[in-house]
Structure formats: structure tokens, C-alpha cells
Amino acid sequence: MAAITATGQTKATRRDFMLIATGAAGAVGAAAIVWPFVASMAPDAFVIAAGAPVDVDLAPVADGQIVKVFWRGKLVFVRNRTPKEIEEAEKVNLASLPDPQPDSARVKEGKAKWLVVFGNCTHLGCVPLGHEGTYEGWFCPCHGSVYDTSGRVRGGPAPLNLPIPPYTFVSDTKIRIGEESKVPPKAAAA
Asked: Which of 27, 143, 174, 180 is catalytic?
């Protein structure tokens, strides 16, 4: 406590100084202890990058080749379809499909040779093998699901087609997975 002098004013004592110094040191110590816990709540660079879009260079991908990439920890197949594969996928009778979807709805307009789909079977999440099965698309060895070259389910226990991730063409030879085109379809055609 501060001492009161004969004039009625308070005089700072050594005890007051020690009290203030101890309080300040305690506050600095508490901040030093709390800071690592607060900093640990921020996502690290790997987590931030996992959600970021992924660019894929299409130039080295040969006709008929399937490239595997990861986006947000999920496997994505990028397939450079041959003219024969495109033709077969386009002339399928949609009524015969368990999950009817035209080939044109599974690719970007004017870019039919490039198919981009998630790489997990829609039955139980296994990874199907490319260029396998009756339709030379994908075959899931776990339970026998068969997909065509458009990623549409054609047989087996899988209930749905291979899903399409959001992606856009950055150029003729590069796509960005994880980002949809922000240009409306009619404006892009103009």
C-alpha cells in the first residue's frame, strides 16, 4: 500500500513497485502460455492447400490416358478420351442406364475429349480400375461395379454415376479442379 505523507499525498513504496512488477510478469507469463494454444487453432499450410484449387496440365496426357490427381484429399480421374470412346458414350440408350445422364452433361461444351470425375466407386468408395470392364471405362474389383467411358454406372451394385467435381478450363491445355467457371454459358459462347 502507498504510504500517506504529512502533506496528505501518497508516496509510492517499494511494495507498490513489487506488486505492479509481479502483476506485469504474471500477465506476460499467462500470454506466453496461452499463445501456443491460440496459434494451434489456426489451420496449417497443408490444410489450407488441401482446399485450394488444383491446376492440371493436360498437354502431356496422351489419347486414352487416365491421370490421377488429388483435390481436397479425394481422388480425381482426368481422362483424355479417344474419338471412339466419345462416340460410344454419346450413342448409349439413356433408358438402359441405372442413373440416366447424357454424355454431353458430363463434359464441358466443346471439350468432349476431357472427362473429369471423382475416382471412388459410388457403392462403397473403392477405387475402380481404368480401361477395365465390359465398357472399357472403369471396373470396381471390390464388388463388381462397371462404369463406361463417361463414368456412368452400367452394372453392379453402384447406384450412381461417378460424380463430377467442380472444374473449369483455364486454357486449352490446363484445367483447374475446385473452381467452377464464373462465366455464364451464353456469355462464354458469344
From this structure: 143
